[in-house]
Amino acid sequence: MSTGDLVLAPFRSETLDDRPSFEALMAAHQQRVLRTAYRLLGRVEDAQDVTQEVFLRLLQHLHHVDADDPKAWLYRVTVNVCNDHYRRRRPVVEAVDLADPAPGPQHALELEDRKQLLTQGLATLPERERTAVVLRDIEGLPTREVAGILGVEEVTVRSQISKARMRLAEYVRTRK
Amino acid sequence: MTCQECRIELFEDTPGRDALVHVGECEDCRELAREIHANAEALAALRGEELVANPFVHPRQRRPWIWGLAAAAALVFGISLPRMFRTEVIVVPNVIPQVQEVSVEPPAPAPEIPKRAQAVLRAKARPRPAVALPVEEPAQPLMVKMLTSDPDVVIYWLIDPVEGEKAI
Questions:
Q1: Which of residues 1-20 of A touch B (CB under 8 A)?
Q2: A111: which chain B residues are within 8 Å (Cβ-Cβ)?
Q3: I want to staple B6 with a disulfide (CB 3.0 to 4.6 A). Which of A72, B22, B67, B133 is the partner?
Q4: Average per-residue pLDDT in chain A?
Q5: How far apart are CA B141 and CA B160, in angstroms?
């Protein structure tokens, strides 16, 4: 056994055993993590970096994560990694190819415009408010769960979400 | 309920009954409620979207050469910076003169001088009073005045002590 094998042996023994379940988790939650990171950072490339980082951490902490319900852990790590990213680089909204939205004539167009405006408006929000509204309104998590992920009281989350919605409404109203 | 109070409640998850009643009566607040609802619908629609990007198909290169370049630049900067601000310091060697230890012998006693010789030496060393030499003044001619019977005639004799007498 070489020196490199000795160094890597403990890591390999964990990862090889858990590889199937890790792949299953990745397949199930990859889009969720990517989407959340994109909404928080506003740039696909940054969201990809964050997603890689999140699943790297998942791989390293696989034994400590509740495999039945890893959503809360994934959201928490995603938010943390995004916050680190955000502090290094302010969010920039860029055009992104999204999957085909729900078809429909006028309503679909209006909805699409509004989604674009809201996506831009998200980038203007303070970090905590943006995180709260992304988890609550976009990801649809209950307030209690958002509070658990962010490590704050529910009343704080409610306040942050209300402020974020006000700012977003003002942003959309002034640009329509 | 005022419009201000109603608007605050509308942005919450579950507006109160009073707020809903106010919305039914106030056109402005009703318009705001429609906007908020439309925003909530659009935000929820964002949830269903899937990003086309796949982070694991083409993992991004971390570009380690950037860090290498930064490290090299930092190294060059670190080396050049002290030189830029360096002040020339001339190190003066600390020269300590070597002192040779010399055994100093007490001076030999002066030879004894006889008393008479000492008196002569003292007399020689005593300052002498200055003697004023007589200054020779140039000799003045001797003048002799001779009166005659005529009061208008006077004879003067000038006698030079060196050359002799001369009558004027």
A1: none
A2: 41-42, 45
A3: B22
A4: 78
A5: 5
